[in-house]
Amino acid sequence: MHYQHEFNTNGDTIQDPDGFRILRARLIAEGDLNKYTSYQVMIDPRAPEIAGLLRDAYIEFHPTKNQKIRIGQQKTQFGWENRQSITELYVVNRAEASDNVARGENLRDIGLGLLGNVPINKNFRLEDAVTFTNGTRSNVRGPFDFNTKKALWLSLIHISEPTRLR
After folding, report:
1. Cα separations (Å) of 99 from 82, 107, 121, 138?
2. pLDDT of amino acid 102
3. Hey, how many other C-beta atoms are within 10 angstroms of the C-beta on 116?
């Protein structure tokens, strides 16, 4: 949360109004429909425009232990940093490269995704994340989606899990 109150230190009577903002607030509804299917709906109540209010809205299928298929509006899967919530990053903001190069008009889009990992051995795994999107931006569909360009986002990351000491 952020509250701002300006102190008038120059003697005139001009003063900006007080301000109160809530940053990075999310309302999330998620759950399991059955053993193989789950859902998530994420709303950002502080979005500056109505088009940004709905963040995620997808159904996820779990055909195997290590893979899941997402259908609906979701984050585009490119790189490690874009896939993480900003609250889980090692720094406060994403890198300029992530913001400007590794995404479309914004971080979310409507599409089909495959996410998971392939275990290599007990210490290593290969994480996979692929998303095929409608190529516009979040919350654009129906008669307003006149874009014939589609987008394919792909991320393969090799992860080393630390060996546990006994």
Report:
1. 8, 8, 34, 16
2. 58
3. 18
| Cβ atoms of residues 104 and 137 within 8 Å | yes
Spell out the residues 6+ positions from residue 155 whose beta carbon is closer than 8 angstroms to its own. Answer: 77, 78, 79, 80, 83, 127, 128, 129, 130
The helix/strand/coil state of 97 is helix
Q: What does the pLDDT look like over 10-24, one tens digit per residue? A: 777 777 778 777 777
Bridge partners, residue 152, by sequence: 132
pTM: 0.69
DSSP state of 55: E
CA distance 146 to 137: 12
Q: What is the pLDDT of residues 132-149, one digit of tens each?
A: 887 766 666 555 555 666
What is the distance between the alpha carbons of residues 48 and 112, in angstroms, rounded to a whole number?
27
